[in-house]
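Make up an example, fold above all:
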Amino acid sequence: MSASPTDHSGEISPAHDQAAEVAHAWHHFRENACFFAGFLTIILLTVFAFNVNFGPTGNMVAIGVLATLRCGLIAYFMASLFKSFTFVFRTLIFTALFFIGMIFLSLWDSPLPHIGNPIANRNDQSTSHVP
């Protein structure tokens, strides 16, 4: 005779460790709280830097540094979410390299002195494609 469908006495129940689950949850909470505190700090520094005049060059440096810090912190958070997904990392690395290449190309074609194409003769304005 077969056993009743509701009889689960032969199954082995998995160990349920409440203390380990709570410790694991607190570990993730501390990670996320540190991320939030760091991100909030960078946002508050951005607001503070917006209200302070560092000069024309200093303002650009402050904007660049704070934007880089924000992007780095977001990249760290995304990396912590996708720890085992190598495709995501490869895509992010390709995107970063593509972005750097586009910035390089835009600076290469810049009409600003000492930034643009070093090969072109800047003294000969007849060959310049910039109006």
